[in-house]
Every structure is written in C-alpha cells, then in structure tokens.
Amino acid sequence: MITKVRPHLSQNEALLFERSSPGKKAYQLPDLDVPALDAAEALGAENVRAEIPGFPEVSEVEAIRHFTRLSTWNYAIDHGMYPLGSCTMKYNPRINELVARIEGLAWAHPYQPEALAQGSMEVMARLEAALAEITGMDAVTLQPAAGAHGELTGILLIRALLEKRGHPRKKILIPDSAHGTNPATAAIAGYAVQNIASSASGVLDVSALARLVDRDVAALMVTNPNTLGVFEENIMQAAEILHAKGAMLYMDGANMNALVGIARPGDFGVDVLHLNLHKTFSTPHGGGGPGAGPVAVKKAFEPFLPVPRLKRSGKKWAFDYRRPRSIGRVRAFYGNFGVLVRALAYILAHGGPGLRNATVDAVLNAVYIRKQLEPYFDLPYASPNMHEVVFSDERQAKLGVRTGDLAKRLIDYGFHPYTVSFPLIVRGALMIEPTETEGKLELDQFIEAMISIAKEVEADPQLVKNAPYGTRTSRVDEVTAARKPVLRWKPG
Amino acid sequence: MRYLPKSDSERRQMLEACGVASPEELFSHLPEAVRLKRPLDLAAGISEYEIVDYFRRRAAENANGYASFLGAGVYHHFRPVLVDSVVSRGEFLTSYTPYQAEISQGTLTAIFEFQTMICQLTGMDVANASMYDGSTAVPEAVFMAVRSTGKGRVLIASSVHPEYREVLCTYARHQGMPVEEFGYLPEAGTIDLEDLDRKMDDLTAAVVVQSPNFFGIVDRLQAAAEIAHRRGALLIVVFTEAVSLGLLEPPADADIVAGELQSFAISPSYGGPFAGIIATQEKLVRQMPGRLVGQTTDSRGNRAFCLTLSTREQHIRREKATSNICTNQALIALMATVFMTVYGKQGLRELAQQNLAKAHYLAGRLKPRFSGRFFNEFVVRVESKSPEEINQALLKKKIIGGLPLGRFYPELADSMLLCATEMSCRADMDTVAEVLR
C-alpha cells in the first residue's frame, strides 16, 4: 500500500519564451541621476546590438507563477527522504540560508580592503580549523568550488610534492568501486589510471596493492568508507605500503558522513583528502550546485596549497600571496564563501559532540534499512556497512525487473530513488543512504515501500517495469534526447 | 539536537531491531587503531539565536554602509526581490542533480530556459547548464579547443582577468600545455594585434580575449578572430560583466564563449559561489564539458526535459571524459535565470544603458588612462598620490575606491580600476572625482 502520497493537481506551464509578449515588464529602474548617454556614441555604433532576439518579456506576476509552477514539478528533501547513496542528501538547515544573506557577508567584495573584510576572513579561518580538527589533518584550503575540483586540487598537490622530491611519477591507482570523478581527475592532472579490483569482501585488496605499488605510482585514490558503505579495514596497512615506496594516500571524502567524530583520516594514514561541504556539512545541493570541496592535507603539503593563504598578522587576518611553491590558484578569489558560511553554521549548530551523534544516527539508519530489507533484496557483500547499504537486483532481475525499474516504482510511493547501478562492482546496484536526518516514521515508510515493490515484482513484474504512474511526467525518452539533441528553445 | 528527528525511545527501538546493544556497537568492526579516542575539540552546539548573533558580529567586522567603486570581475548590481523568493523554495533549494527526470522537471525546465537565454545573449548555438565560475570556465574552454584542434598551445591576452589567467596556468602546467601572453596597447587599452600576430603559430589551439576586458574596454574581437582563424586556432571570448551583453554586440566571431554571470543577481559574497558559462557553436557541442539539458518527450508524448549527451561525462567515460566536472551551479544559474526573466529584453538593455551612463559620468570628471571605448569600468592614473593613499582618503568618506592595479600590472602601479553601476549615486561619484583630482 502507498501510504506517503496521493495524487494532487499540478499546473501546466509554457516556457518563458512561449508566454512572452512584447512590452511586458517585471522591472522598474530608478530615474537616472546623471545625463543619459547615446550608446552608439559611447561604444561605437558597430559595437551596439539591435536587441536580444527571443529574450523573455513577462510581467512580475507571470514571472513568479512561472517559477513557482516549475518548482512544484521537483521532488526535494523538504518533501521527504532522498536516499541517494554517496550523495548524503541530508536536511539543509534554514538558518544557514539566513546567515549567508546577512548584508555584511553577502555583499562583501573580494577586493575590499583586508581591514574591512576581517569578519569574512575570521569565518574562513574558523572553518579551516574546524575541518582540520574533524579530519585530523594539518592544513586546509577552502578554494575548490566542488568535490571534483577538490580532487583535482588534491592530486595537483601530490604532484607538486613528488615533483619537488625528484619526480612527479606516472600513475594513480584507483579501486574499481570508485566514483567516476576519480579517474577523470587523475587524467586531467596528467596521470595514467590503473584500476585495482576489489577483494571478495568488497574492500581494497592489499596484496594486489602491494604488487602494484612501485616508483611509478604517485598515489592511491580511495573512498573510505568505500562506495559499498564498508570501512576499508586495511587502510593503515595500505598507507604503509604506499609510504614505503614514496607514494601517497588520497582520500575522497564523499562518505565522510560515516566518520565525523568517530575516526579521522589524518589518524589512519591519509595524506590528502577533499570534503564535500554539500554532503557532510549540509549545504544545499540546489538541483546540482553550488557546492564546495575543501582540501585537507598533512604538513608536508602545506607549502604547495593554492594562493592566497590566510595568515595571522598581529591581531588581524591577512592574505599571503608570496608562496613560491604553491600550485597556484584553482579558482578566482577565495572559494565559494557563501557555501563556507553555511557549513560553519552547521558545525556551530551541532558542536563537537553533536557532530558525532549525527554520525551515529546516520549509521544506525543505514544498518536499520539493511536489516529490514535483507530478506527481500540480495546483499552482494556481507561486510558490516556504515552510512549506506548496497543491495543488488539479482532476485528481481530473474523476473526481468532491473534496479532502474525498482527505482522508478519507488517514485510512485513518494520517495526519490536511491542511487541506481552504482558502484559498478555490483551488478544492478541499489545504493541507499538515508542520512541521519530521517526519523523512524519516514524510514519505516521507505522500508514498507521497498518491500511492497519487491512483492509487486513477484506478482506483476510489468507493473513495476512501466512505473512511474503517479507523476505528471511519465518515463522520459532519454535515447531520443541524446540522438537528436534539442538543447535550446527556438521559435516554432 | 534539532536536526536529528529521532526520540531516544525510537533510537532504542531501532538499535534493538538491528540486534545491536549500544550505538558504539555499530562501529565495533572498525579497527581499534583508526578510532578517535577523544571527543572532537570543538565547542558544544549552539542555538539559532547564537548562530545568528555570531555571524552578525562577523558581518559587523566587514565593510558596512560603504559605497563601493570596485568591479574587476565582481559587480554591485541590484538583486530583484523575486530572485531570492524563487531560489528559497525548498523544491529548488533542496533537490539533487536532476538525474530522475520524472520528478525533476522543475530544475530541468529552468536549466533549458537558462541554456536558451545564454545562447540568445551570446549569439552562440549551444550553452551548457553552467560551470563553477568564470575563472574555471576558461581552462575548460581551452581544453575544448585543444581537443577539437588537436593542437596544444594557448595565447591569452594580458587584459584577461589576472586571476583567470592564474587559474588557466595552474590547470595547464600539469598538462604540459604552454600558455603565452600577448599584450595590450598602452594608449588604447585594447589588445595588441601585432603582438598577437607575431606570437601566433600553427601549434596554437586557442586565442583567449576578454571583452569588455579587465580594464573595462570593449575589445577587438573580430580582428582577433581573423588572426586566430587564419592559423587554425579557435577564438575564446571571455566576459566578466554579463550586464554589458544587454548593449554590446554578441561575440559572434567567437568559437567558444566563457563567462561569469555574477552580475545577474548573484551576491558578491566575498567571491563566490558564482556561476560560469560555456557557450559554443553547434559543431563543438560534443567537446563541451559539464551538464546539458535536452528536450524530449515522455511516454505519453508530452514535452519533457532530461540531462543528455552524458557520454561526454565522467560518470560514464571515467578517465576518458571531457572534464572531471560532475556538477553545474544549478541554484546560482537559477538566480541568473530569474534575473534575466525579471529584466527581460527591454530591461537588460535599459540596465546596461544606466551602467554606461553612470560610468561615463564619473569618467567625464576624471581622465581615463586608455582611449578605448569602455562599458562600466575604466582605468585612471592617479597623479599626486598613490592609488592606495587615495583609497585611504575615500574610506574616511565611507567610500571604497577602485582597485589599485599595481599588484597585477606593475606598469600600472600609478593607476586604479574604477567601476560604476546603476547602484552608484551621483553624490558619491562627485566625491570620488574630487578626491582623485
């Protein structure tokens, strides 16, 4: 039975360009307090455009209705559980939005005098310190704009240190369970990628690692807990193997929500890691950004961090640009400051003990789901899981129903799907991460929905294969979209 | 804790259902040596009131109540109220990347509109769903040019935003990609076409030019395009001041446009988050990095949108992807989309005209250093004092002056870059002019 949702009406809405008509306005500018200027004269007639063809013309009421109607076509955390594995879709506290909009912070210009930016700099310094404490690392850069950007920064740091030690080396080792960004990043940083097959228990194969690590290997990129939600129990051994050959241990912090307050990467041998503030530290995903991907490093990497670095100069904060060994800038200015404010607000709200409690609840929720769904779905790896659990569609696939179908049916039950078909080492993966911000009622409804779908597969596989039924948009033809790309509106 | 929705009794029930005696047992499989044996050294959690108070006090340590004439890639433009009303809706704010098209049509439709408006604005055929920011869009555009020309060298104008050039160098260095600069004319402030021509060769993949350039000057794109194309290179046009596109001819000579949309209702926010764009011609679409939304239909035949051409992307192609990027800046791009909707066809032009009028009013009372035509920023040489001293004097009058250029251009150490927008009032401009003269 579907308990969480029932159908309701939603509005149709044309594209802005289709509902525009000449002369409509949603703006009013103040009267000019200086003489008006002839644009052609000031800029040269050849530089001035006639108009912006097709640009919208709507009234204010139409504009707000347009976007409000569109918004109702989205599912969101505010509607309910969003169990996307490895995405850590937790509640986004609204206080974070409020403080990021305080005028002195939101309207700070990156080039305003440092003496008039001390508040912003203090926020950044405090966040750097908190992230260093949480990860057990020595220094943090807040400049990278997203997780993948942090990865690139981290690998460039490794490259820079190895270069200084004589040779940047050639290869990066990546487990086959890794996110796609890891190999893409290694390639952009100029490294060849070598995959390592996971062991039978789904963790890093240390003996394979020992065989592969040589003087050509720059680093191992590992996600811990890995994408199965399993803690890499041999991580310290892996670090020793790497370090003995002068190679580095890079950690993708995508799953840091399983570790905060429990274990620190810096204490288990990690040299460089990136964090995703939009995952672990609750800043909103916003339909796909903005995020922030700070990078935390051990002391040896500190001289190579991107410029500028915050430094204390007497009683004031200052930016230090004279850092000859820095890898350079990875982004203009100092990073996604507005995202940093939100992350710090989250850390302040929880505090040290609170952050650990959040981790405990995140893991409890995932273990609870595993326990309740284990009788209905195949569990390819029996190792204990942390913040997420990965099932496979093996049982359902026998009846012709795949993980993607189950996911679409979940939509009818009022939930966002889990992560589909990832990690790649599991055939037909269902990757479920509830996060700590789901209560027992929501979890029980999710479990009930999953069990109900498992039963539907037995009774009527076709029902599940054609889902969803309750959405205003039914299954979307992605094949045609890619074959005949229509990437912008054009007048018909 | 207010973000954790379980009661203690629910927690106990769940632990019991899991067959676990205590929360600690959930972590018993972790090797002893990796476990943190002490509490994190962070203060205890605080209330909403205390959080607001903390950040208000930090904000009070920043500039408050100052008029500002800083531009240089980040501009003070009014943010229409509708922008925050829309982006504060939980449906937009708290949703993920729209992989599940059936329940993400709101975000997908808005991005499709965004892509369309960026095309209309830039005169390009296709635009992606946005990039991290303008500075990172530049190396991504350069990599596109490298892939499509099969060449590996880059020529970039020294009048491109200095921090954008630094970012390009960081990215290029580790690819072994040579990046060389060409200069600007000391009189006009536009690119030095002879220098460009001299440095051009057949191994150059891209020529990168900004317009309006870092000095605010409308640059010579057509001439740059001719030189680039003659030797089989692509022209990448960069912009940092998107409002200029309300008046200026779109960069039709460009092969790729890489820009920053901060001016479109995105708070300066001490430098981010912003949203960059990459737009290009049809023939280069498969070389594009980043997310793209395409139009299609659902199984009932209704128009629908979805993420598309993902075979370019890292989650499919892994190390062979066009870029490692896996997000756009959806919510920030939405701010820009609402901004473009509110101002629309007439409003963006009128806004650009006001910017032009204000900057030219201020410039009229001073002597711009360069003779090139400018939009809302210009360089002035400071005569008797240093730019820093002038700014100190302005601060006493609650005005943040222009950007002293010496830190980026040693030859312009006696100059500052001033910006005026629709938010600059005449009285403040008069004060700036007085102090500067």
Describe this structure in words.
The complex is a heterodimer of chains A (492) and B (437). With 492 residues, chain A is of the alpha/beta class. Helices cover 35% and strands 10% of the residues of chain A. Chain A is built from 15 helices and 12 strands. In chain A, strands 1-7-6-5-4-2-3 form a 7-stranded mixed sheet, with helices on both faces. In chain A, strand 11 (419-420) and strand 12 (429-432) form a beta hairpin. Chain A is globular, with a radius of gyration of 25 Å. The two termini of chain A are 44 Å apart. The model of chain A has no long low-confidence stretch (mean pLDDT 97). Chain B is of the alpha/beta class. Chain B has helices at 8-17, 48-60, 81-87, 90-93, 105-122, 134-149, 162-173, 193-199, 221-230, 314-317, 330-364, 387-396, 426-436; strands at residues 67-68, 126-127, 153-157, 179-182, 204-210, 234-239, 256-260, 276-280, 293-297, 303-307, 377-381, 399-400, 403-404, 415-419. The termini of chain B are far apart. The chains are: A alpha/beta (492), B alpha/beta (437).
**Could you tell me the mean pLDDT of chain A?**
97
How much is the radius of gyration of chain A in Å? 25 Å
Residue share in helix of chain A? 25-40%
Question: Mind summarizing the main beta sheet of chain B?
Answer: 7 strands, mixed
CA-based shape of chain B: globular
The whole-angstrom Rg of chain B is 25 Å
Q: Distance between termini of chain B? A: 59 Å
**N-to-C CA distance of chain A:** 44 Å
Helix content of chain B: 25-40%
- Number of E-type strands of chain B: 14
Number of helices of chain B: 13
Mean pLDDT of chain B: 96
Tell me, briefly, the overall form of chain A.
globular
> How large is the share of residues in beta strands of chain B?
5-15%
- Placed side by side, the strands forming the largest sheet of chain B appear as 2-8-7-6-5-3-4
Oligomer type? heterodimer
The proportion of strand residues of chain A reads 5-15%
